[in-house]
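Hello Y.,

Per our agreement to keep a running log of every chain we model this quarter, I'm adding this entry. I've kept the format consistent with earlier entries: sequence first, then predicted structure.
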Amino acid sequence: MPSTKRINKIREKLMAALSPTQLDITDDSHQHHGHAGFDEEGSHFTVTIASPHFQNKNLVECHQLIYQALGTMVPNEIHALQIKVK
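Predicted structure for the entry above:
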């Protein structure tokens, strides 16, 4: 069952920091039941994001901006994050 609360928190942080033109967040935690880092509230996510802040940045720099925006959520609330930059 997706974690609306945690997804909303991720969305708020990314919106505030990166003003994305596209933002999709999927809770993939159900695929990791019984694995390390599994959390009933959601711990494994996929983020698909496009942002003007990514212009003229390489993929590593884009990922760094995302991790900076999420702050202490990784690794405290997010165990695994798959990032797709558009």
